[in-house]
Amino acid sequence: MSTETAKKPSVLFVCVHNAGRSQMAAAFLTTLGKGEIEVRSAGSAPADKVNPAAVEAMAELGIDMSAEIPKVLTTEAVKESDVVITMGCGDTCPIFPGKRYEDWELEDPAGQGVDAVRPIRDEIKSRIEELIASLTPAT
Predict the structure, then answer these.
(1) Under a CB-based contact definition with an 8 Å cutoff, are residues 109 and 51 in contact?
(2) Which pLDDT score is estimated for 95?
């Protein structure tokens, strides 16, 4: 079966402001997933811009998030995603049957410097690697 005909798994990352954790998770999944997974991120109350410390922490690993813009969470985004991951921020998402829901308890990087963001970034990367392994067939 070619990858063109198979539907890519899709993942939605949700946190309140869509400015730190969910943006880092989406950037990691986009980069490490090598185009095999559709990636979305959103927030219930999106910030005006992505957290500069998160952008800096990701840039240290060669991932550029500087052009990302926080997006508002929509029911459609949840409906179109196979996996919905909230980032330990108590966001409520619409629940649809047949979806996989996870809540990743992660410290909020809002208002923190890059030194505080690095361990959060590294924890997200580790979880993203496990997520990719669970979503893509072994090669």
Answers:
(1) yes
(2) 78
